[in-house]
């Protein structure tokens, strides 16, 4: 089953479809849910390896002991087809391809073994960000600008995904593949992420977790006029135009 | 005018609070305090200022920052007035932080400091608990320290902006079991309210209900299960909270 939301004459309508071929994508799509969006930063093996020296220097001093979390505020959330607006004077802006974990029922202190029971399914997230020169302080300025978190186009039911921890992720800019990664690069896999967050934060139905983004290499830079697509095997693809703020 | 949200007979009600601090329903009926549960009076993004009082910065051995140091909390952490907050077992230091909370009243983007106060809808009190044992040097203060279930009491009610004559001259006080532990004044904010609204609205669009926790002065202390923690802001109200153990908290989850 596919779950999605569309704007129809100023009302938000929740819909379902049994096949993705029954869904006509256009720019009336909204993010598939309206909950909180929590990101897991530095949750990528290649990225962590590239930061090994920085992790052991000031101000970080030692590598993170637990998953590093951040919040994508509601002003950042946009649906399929809506424009990512990039500022002209804040330096480079990067796409952030990630699997989105959609919570299906309230999760407080769930074990990794039971985590899937609390997951409705999966979506795609483009966790857009300015460059980060340090991970010491919360990245509000880098990550919480309006339109910096396209989500969608739908949530695919978990029953249709064999394993969320082995899915190829591609990023395309203007139709060309510029970056490839895989959810097997996550340091903390899906079940452990849900278990960890729920150990102190109750997750509600409709909340979305951004499982992990790769290193923001120059290939992931997006500019006004571009069209950026995140594609995840078995789940679908999320396309958004980029324009000047 | 003072407005609040309560849970009454399993319904969420928007109510007002009169000059005797009694809750009045939209039909004008006064409710006895024991018959309802206080809920957080607002719903929106939660911005919190770290080290925004010079004396508190010194207390934490930090230099006051050059620009506002803002972190975010998630709504899972919010609870209303006169509720229970749990202290995890086996931690050394859990402290309160009494804060004036500015609540946004209308959509704000790229607002100047000169116009910023027009966007304030009202004020309330926040207690921004932290568990220092969990601090790490990544996105510090990290969510495990700050965005924990039950760890952000807020309320009891929202006071209309027009009823707070000078939000930059309000005493803040925290009492543990009746003993004064923390005292400060919003005149000592490093970044004042117009500065914070202009700063945040330059980054993003603020919407009605968004909360800016403006920071806490010096005077932190550890809290233990059984402690009654009262945070108050002059002219905005008195927010009460009781600390329970993790074991007692887990029992409430299983009820």
From TrEMBL, chain A:
Task: Spell out the InterPro entries in the cross-references.
Answer: Fumarylacetoacetase-like_C (IPR011234), Fumarylacetoacetase_C_sf (IPR036663), HPA_isomer/decarb_N (IPR012686)
Coiled coil start-end: none
Under Gene Ontology molecular function, one entry of this record is: hydrolase activity
Task: Provide the Fumarylacetoacetase-like C-terminal domain boundaries.
Answer: 37-242
Q: Which domain of life is it from?
A: Bacteria
Question: Keywords assigned by UniProt?
Answer: Hydrolase, Metal-binding
Q: What is this protein called?
A: Fumarylacetoacetate hydrolase family protein
Automatic annotation (TrEMBL), chain B:
Metal-binding listed as a keyword: yes
Keywords of the record: Hydrolase, Metal-binding
Question: Which superkingdom does the taxonomy of this entry point to?
Answer: Bacteria
Origin organism lineage: Bacteria, Pseudomonadati, Pseudomonadota, Gammaproteobacteria, Oceanospirillales
Question: Gene3D superfamilies this protein is in?
Answer: Fumarylacetoacetase-like, C-terminal domain (3.90.850.10)
Question: What GO molecular functions are on record for this protein?
Answer: hydrolase activity
Q: What is this protein called?
A: Fumarylacetoacetate hydrolase family protein
In this chain the Fumarylacetoacetase-like C-terminal domain maps to 46-243
């Amino acid at each position: 089953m596919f779950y999605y939301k569309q704007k129809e004459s100023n009302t938000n309508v929740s819909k379902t479809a049994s096949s993705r071929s029954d869904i006509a994508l256009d720019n009336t799509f909204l993010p598939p849910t309206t909950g909180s969006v929590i990101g897991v930063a530095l949750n990528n093996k290649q990225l962590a390896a590239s930061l090994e020296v920085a992790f052991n220097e000031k101000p970080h001093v030692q590598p993170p002991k637990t998953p590093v979390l951040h919040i994508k505020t509601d002003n950042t959330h946009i649906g399929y087809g809506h424009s990512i607006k990039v500022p002209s004077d804040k330096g480079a802006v990067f796409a952030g391809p990630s699997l989105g974990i959609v919570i299906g029922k309230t999760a407080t202190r769930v074990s990794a073994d039971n985590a899937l029971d609390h997951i409705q399914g999966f979506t795609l997230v483009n966790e857009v960000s300015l460059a980060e020169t340090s991970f010491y302080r919360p990245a509000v300025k880098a990550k919480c600008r309006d339109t910096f978190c396209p989500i969608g186009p739908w949530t695919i039911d978990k029953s249709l995904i064999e394993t969320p921890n082995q899915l190829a992720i591609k990023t395309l800019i203007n139709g060309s593949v510029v970056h490839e990664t895989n959810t097997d690069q996550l340091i903390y896999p899906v079940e452990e992420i849900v278990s960890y967050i729920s150990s102190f934060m109750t997750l509600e139905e409709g909340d979305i977790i951004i499982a992990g983004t790769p290193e923001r290499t120059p290939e992931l830079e997006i500019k006004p006029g571009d069209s950026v697509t995140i594609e995840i095997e078995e789940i679908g693809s999320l396309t958004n135009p980029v324009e000047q703020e | 005018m003072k407005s609040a949200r309560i849970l009454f007979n399993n319904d969420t009600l928007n109510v007002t609070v009169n000059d005797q601090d009694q809750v009045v329903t939209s039909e004008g009926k006064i409710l006895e305090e024991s018959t309802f549960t206080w809920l957080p009076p607002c719903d929106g993004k939660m911005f919190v200022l770290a080290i925004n009082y010079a004396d508190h910065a010194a207390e934490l051995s930090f230099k006051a920052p050059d620009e506002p140091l803002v972190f975010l909390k998630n709504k899972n952490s919010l609870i209303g007035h006169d509720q229970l907050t749990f202290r995890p077992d086996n931690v050394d230091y859990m402290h309160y932080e009494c804060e004036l909370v500015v609540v946004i009243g209308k959509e704000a983007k790229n607002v100047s400091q000169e116009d910023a106060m027009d966007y304030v809808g009202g004020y309330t009190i926040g207690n921004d608990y932290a568990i220092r044992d969990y601090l790490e040097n990544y996105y510090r203060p990290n969510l495990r320290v700050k965005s924990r279930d039950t760890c952000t009491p807020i309320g009891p009610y929202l006071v209309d902006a027009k009823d707070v004559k000078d939000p930059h001259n309000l005493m803040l006080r925290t009492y543990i079991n009746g003993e004064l532990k923390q005292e400060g004044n919003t005149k000592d904010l490093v970044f004042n309210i117009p500065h914070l609204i202009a700063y945040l609205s330059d980054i993003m669009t603020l919407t009605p209900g968004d909360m800016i926790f403006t920071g806490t002065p010096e005077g932190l202390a550890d809290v233990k299960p059984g402690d009654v923690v009262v945070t108050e802001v002059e002219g905005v109200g008195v927010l009460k909270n009781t600390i329970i153990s993790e074991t007692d908290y887990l029992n409430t989850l299983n009820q």
